[in-house]
Amino acid sequence: MTIRERLFEITELDVSQILSLMRENQLYEYIQTLISFVEDFPLLETTLKESLEAKDYLSYSKTLVNIRDMLSGIYANELAEECQKQINALVAVKHEKVLASMTYLLSLLAMLSIDIQVVIYMDENEGDIEPPDGGAEEAAGQEAGKLSILAVDDNAFSLDTLKAALEGSEYKFTGVNSGAGALKYLLSHDPNLYILDIEMPGMDGYELAYKIKELGKKAPILFLTGNATREYVLKALKAGGSDFIVKPVTQKLILEKVEKFI
Question: Which uninterrupted H or E stretch holds 57?
Fold first, then answer.
């Protein structure tokens, strides 16, 4: 798959017509702009959080304007509009609502940053990183007519959120709170999809992903994270990750990611 084809798959970017018209030098420049966004995002995220914590709404607004302009430059038009809405609303809403809006916006921006990285670094490291599995394998012992998902997270609230998001769906959900518990479960089960938290005590998500692959399991792995830094994302891809679910999780995002792979 070419870099153009991968970029088409980033739903946050409105590039369906633009990419087909780009010459190679224009595509190269566009990719550099995407990389600049990825590199600048962690500092912008920190600035937003710190300015809001200090209730410095002027700095907060200026940072949002900066992010809005960057998003427009990479054709992430809906997210740019979301930034503008939050800028417009600053004069009329309470601090608690601004905080909630920021948390929501940052999760969307983190997802965009990660999606860009998956596309670009899959292209740059094609020999080192396996491409994401397009579909799930048949699982041994799964319930009739149901595809199974194993989620591993030491946070019970996070597991409950995932379970609630998949309630009533066609998927069988199982949650365990440790890497050791996951490996024990895999002795007699073969899930169609894994959702792994990265930061867990004892065995973290990276190590667990490697062990899952060592067991010969080929179902896709989605990493649950709130960190969009380049080192963090690349490490997850090298560990066998196919994609990411960004915290705080929403039902819409979970279902979109799950349905993409199974």
Answer: helix 57-73
Residues in CB range of 102: below 8 A, 6 or more apart: 48, 49, 52, 86
Task: Dump pLDDT digits (tens) for 90-140.
Answer: 877 788 888 888 998 999 999 999 999 988 877 766 555 554 444 444 444
CA separation, residue 191 to residues 139, 140, 187, 205 (Å): 6, 8, 11, 16
Q: Where do we find the tokens 């702009």?
A: 33
Tell me the C-alpha distance between 15 and 215, whole Å. Answer: 40
> Burial code of 233-254, b = ≥16 C-beta within 10 A, e = fewer?
bbebbbbbbbbbbbbebbeebb
* Dihedral pair phi/psi, residue 54, rounded to 5°: -85, 0
134 contacts: CB under 8 Å, gap ≥ 6: 261
pLDDT digits (tens, 9 = 90+) for 142-172: 445 579 999 999 999 989 999 998 888 889 9
Euclidean distance between CA atoms 107 and 104, whole angstroms: 5
- Compute the distance between CA of residue 105 and CA of residue 113 in angstroms, rounded to an integer: 12
Q: Which of 234, 226, 257, 219 is nearest to 122 (CA)?
A: 234
Which pair of tokens denotes residue 198?
A: 């990265």
**Cα atoms in the Cβ-side hemisphere of radius 13 Å centred on 112:** 29
Domain boundaries, the chain: 3-124, 147-261
User: Using CA of residue 173, residue 221, residue 161, residue 252, what is the dihedral sign?
Assistant: negative
Q: What distance lies between CA 215 and its chain's CA centroid?
A: 25
Topology of domain 147-261 in CATH is: Rossmann fold (3.40.50)
The model carries a pTM of 0.81
**Contacts with 204 (C-beta within 8 Å, 6 or more apart), sequence order:** 179, 198
